[in-house]
Amino acid sequence: MTDNRKANDMTAGKTDASTPDLAGLSCHAGKDELQKAASAAGKSEILDRYAADYPLGPHDQPQSMCPAFGSLRVGLRMRRTATVLSGSACCVYGLTFTSHFYGARRTVGYVPFNSETLVTGKLFEDIRDAVFQLADPEKYDTVVVTNLCVPTASGVPLQLLPKEINGVRIIGIDVPGFGVPTHAEAKDVLSGAMLKYAAQEIRQGPVAAPRAGKAKLPTVTLIGEMFPADPVVIGRLLEPMGLAAGPVVPVREWRELFAAFDCAAVGAIHPFYTASIREFESAGRPIVGSAPVGHDGTAEWLAAIGKAAGVSADKIAAAQNAILPAIRGALSAKPIKGRITVSGYEGSELLVARLLVESGAEVPYVGTACPKTQWSDADRTWLEARGVAINYRASLEDDIAAVLHFKPDLAIGTTPVVQKAKELAIPSLYFTNLISARPLMGPAGAGSLADVINAAIGNKARFDRMSEFFDGVGRGPNAGVWEDVPRDRPEFRAKYQAMLAARAKAEESTAT
Ligand code: SF4
Fold it and tell me: What atom of ligand 1 comes closest to residue 87's alpha carbon?
């Protein structure tokens, strides 16, 4: 078959100067080696696209979970969607474990490989067979196949999969850790690919209507995973302007993609969905950044959305007047007092910081693993005008340095940041589980953070008591309570380091 011949050509383990030896390639090969291999294997176009969509810097790459978890979760949450991973067994084990830990309750398909099937191109044929077996229109609208690091680096050509089998759409994506910086952006890789596919279907003819029928009012499509109540709240905010909340991307069902395009404007609530935004822009839909958080954020967002959707100034003012006093009331009824550092990898860090500042907190630092895009400009300028330092693509070291430097009353952050802060007896809250899992928008969001944050800040005395209680029980190798306290032996480590260095030197001289 032509497809398979091409696949064999592209993945054969050639070892000339331009093509790395794929048989020896593993996910421990290092980012540069994997990138080189992927480019040589025909993936340079997709890697260049990722480099443009998800720019790195000022740091190389934030430390976060395997990026593929983001796209995997998007697929697993969709109705009538089958998900297949192609990657090293250890990666697939970790990703499957994490999906089930977060309650996927869905099967994750896996096409295993070994060195032989990888380098001979048989892996692609195995994937193709698996997709044909899965593509049952009774059960599925879509099959999503994801290349993880090694198959991407080896050039497994998912782009050669049939676009559709028995009416089931086939989407093949590459989500390598060396090309997609965060799991947040991987959600955009899949959402963007599905939007692109859906846009082509729309161009070809009539498409399925939304499950609940076509909206009666012009809608605003929302981009970014939110607390479930947030889109409902946004819908109420939009009503006085004669608008309604439309689908939320990432969607939960394929037909929502069609409805997402059928909108008056798009709200990029999370600012890093570059590929998805590109599809909406290609369809001529206006995009508005930021979100209706707090008093100022809601006022600005309603004005920007109203303008983008062609709503009259009177109606925009009516929408603002209908809600802003309630938001101000909610903010002043539940003030937050204290210094708070914020860091996370969800993409909503700046929005949370706005809400904290409007609630009365002092926020000296916001670190986000996500990149700087124009869609967070409004939040960035608002926060910077209030003295907040914003660090895009923040590394764990930056976030911890901020905690050490600012000595906050509360550190909101990722697991290792929270762990470090607790070690320093600083109250802390995990961003993903405790902050993202709350409403942020409109009046509901205005008071929602205060209870959990004030309770956490109020725990400072308990942290101090614990520090005092455990004081003197040691650190590192001698942490704990001992009869004979273990003695650290740095000289052993130094000896092994020297032995390793000597062996590396000997191997180097043998090789040359
Ligand atoms: S797919 Fe890549 S980034 Fe993900 S766990 Fe495997 S090696 Fe790491």
Answer: 1
Work out the percent of the chain whose per-residue pLDDT is above 90.
69
Last residue of a domain, one of 451, 466, 481: 466
Residue-wise pLDDT for 417-453, tens only, equals 999 999 899 999 999 888 988 999 999 888 888 989 9
Query: Which pLDDT tens digit goes with each residue over 247-301?
Result: 999 999 999 999 999 999 999 999 999 999 999 999 999 999 999 999 999 999 9
Q: 368 and 251, same structural domain?
A: no
Domain hosting 168: range is 2-181
Query: Best substitution site from 25, 26, 27, 182 to test ligand 1's pocket, by max atoms within 8 Å of Cβ?
Result: 27
Position 226 in a domain: yes
State whether residue 475 is helix, strand or coil: coil
What is the CATH classification number for the domain harbouring 390? 3.40.50.1980
Domain assignment present for residue 317? The answer is: yes
DSSP structure string for 329-389: HHHHHS---SEEEEEESSS-HHHHHHHHHHTT-EEEEEEESSPP-GGGHHHHHHHHTTT-E
Task: Determine whether the shortest distance from the Cβ of 68 to ligand 1 is under 6 A.
Answer: yes
Give the position, in ligand 1's atom list, of the atom nearest the Cα of 88.
6
Q: What is the pTM of this model?
A: 0.85
Angle at 412 between CA 331 and CA 296, to 5 degrees: 30
Which residue CA neighbors atom 7 of ligand 1 most closely? Answer: 27
Give the three-state DSSP class for 86. Answer: strand
306 and 400 belong to one structural domain:
no
Q: 149 in ligand 1 pocket by Cβ < 6 Å?
A: yes
Cα–Cα distance between 116 and 408 in angstroms, integer?
A: 54
177 lines ligand 1 (CB under 6 A): yes
Number of structural domains, the chain? 3
